[in-house]
Amino acid sequence: MIETCDSPGLLPIQSAISNMLKQVTPVLESEQIELEDALARVLAEDVVSNINVPPNDNSAMDGYAMRCEDLTQSKQLQLVGTALAGKPFKEMLLPGQCIRIMTGAVIPLGADSVVMQENTDTEDGLVIFRQIPESGNSVRKAGEDIQQGSVVVTKGTKLTPAFLALIASVGIAEISVIRNIKVGLIATGDELTPPGEPLSDGAIYESNRYALTALLKTFPVTLFDFGIVKDDKDDLKAVFEQAGSHCDLVLSCGGVSVGDADYVKEILDELGTINFWKVAIKPGKPFAFGHLRGQLNGQMGNAWFCGLPGNPVSSYVTFEQLVTPVLKKLSGQTYLPTPHFVAKAACLIKKRPGRADYQRGIFYRDEQGELWVKPNGKQGSGIMSSIANANCYMVLEQDAEDVQQGEAVNIQPF
Ligand SMILES: Nc1nc2c(c(=O)[nH]1)N[C@H]1C(S)=C(S)[C@@H](COP(=O)(O)OP(=O)(O)OC[C@H]3O[C@@H](n4cnc5c(N)ncnc54)[C@H](O)[C@@H]3O)O[C@H]1N2
Ligand code: MOO
């Protein structure tokens, strides 16, 4: 069979992303939530600190605090007390004196340095210093992490575990975040059977929703799962209307190509608008983007719509490459293209011009530290193991041809 170039009429991936980002506007409504519930949420306002972190100069080591100038006279200082984290030594240290100090304890007035205990000896109420420190040795300065009045985390930041700790460190327990994006998810196909049930003739297990649901969980999303809808145009249309009535974004997978039971595009045409259909991406060509008008019990709504192809790898790749920018924009995050790294092809990588190809690969370093990449087995859009066992995409530009062994390849680590 002669394979023909399939680029005519396909929208280049960057044009598809720009088109979607131009249309979609961020959700503006915000809500106050507890910090402990804020993982993966997007900040609606800058977080400003009312305090210095740390609040006081404090010790970075268990050891002894002293004025380092005193050690120029004598290596021995008189031990006059102890400071623990949360239990400061409240007096002023006088010349010739030192105190025992633990990590995190406040540096007392009069002291400017700490020497860790491994570099000291003690004898009859004296501490003998084997290290002569510079001023400020092992002292963590007040405000060295965060200064009072400074912006700790900016509006639009998606909160990672480290940001949660940073906000907690300035004593804030409640924050203002953008409300969750309401996303509807629909799988369509007569052949789709939920895992756990017996498989009838010609059927397959539905698997895309498991990947898409898990991917969605990494975003600030409230998921409305509409399950599996049969290839019945009226049923599918009713579910689309229902999803469009209250979601910000509706995702379907399957039924978006040109087969006799592929109704997605037709329904989108009737219920809304199609901004584009068919992108120069492999896998994932029949991806559709548009707008869906919905209504349910008198409630009218307008949702953005992404029609993902049914092939398992196609739905996964189009989610990561095309839906992710939309979700980021909707939730008020700045969209930054995923960084690429360059590796050398460990073998010939087959590629036909026409679509940007997101092949699933395995990258590794050789003993010389050189970065290599090779395809992770068969690259068909139904071969989910190609992605599950891979560690990167090998991103091959739309017009690129075969990549020869040793040539440069852009990779996007997972
Ligand atoms: N004549 C043409 N045929 C096809 C074209 C084309 O351009 N001309 N494009 C091909 C490409 S590329 C893709 S990708 C697929 C996409 O088709 P659909 O989005 O309509 O997907 P379906 O036909 O419904 O399903 C495709 C495949 O995936 C399986 N599937 C569907 N949903 C799921 C699910 N939730 N979990 C697991 N597997 C699923 C389904 O059983 C099919 O095997 O169209 C090509 N055809
Ligand atoms: O784009 Mo399809 O996803 O090549 O099979």
Mean pLDDT: 95
Give the strand line-up of the largest sheet.
7-4-6-5-9-8
N-to-C CA distance = 35 Å
Mind describing the biggest β-sheet?
6 strands, mixed
Helix share, percent? 10-25%
What would CATH call the homologous superfamily of the largest domain?
A: MoaB/Mog-like domain
List low-confidence stretches. 1-5
Topology, element by element:
Layout: H1 13-23, E1 30-34, E2 47-48, E3 58-59, E4 63-66, E5 76-83, E6 97-101, E7 113-116, E8 120-123, E9 126-129, E10 139-140, E11 151-153, H2 161-169, E12 174-178, E13 181-188, E14 192-193, E15 204-205, H3 208-216, E16 221-229, H4 233-246, E17 249-253, H5 264-271, E18 272-277, E19 281-282, E20 288-296, E21 299-308, H6 312-330, E22 341-345, E23 356-365, E24 371-375, H7 385-388, E25 392-396, E26 408-413
Parallel strand pairs: 5-6, 13-16, 13-17, 14-15, 17-21, 19-23, 22-24
Antiparallel strand pairs: 1-12, 2-11, 3-10, 4-6, 4-7, 5-9, 8-9, 18-20, 20-21, 22-26, 23-24, 23-25, 25-26
Helix pairs in contact: 1-6, 3-6, 4-5
Bound molecules: ligand LQZAQKY5 and molybdate ion.
3D architecture notes:
This protein has 414 residues and is α/β, with parallel strands linked by helices. It is 18% helix and 32% strand. It is built from 7 helices and 26 strands. The chain starts with 12 loop residues before the first helix and ends with a strand. The structure holds ligand LQZAQKY5 and molybdate ion. InterPro entries: MoaB/Mog-like_dom_sf, MoaB/Mog_dom, MoCF_biosynth_CS, MoeA-like, MoeA_C_domain_IV, MoeA_C_domain_IV_sf, MoeA_linker/N, MoeA_linker/N_sf. Its EC number is 2.10.1.1.
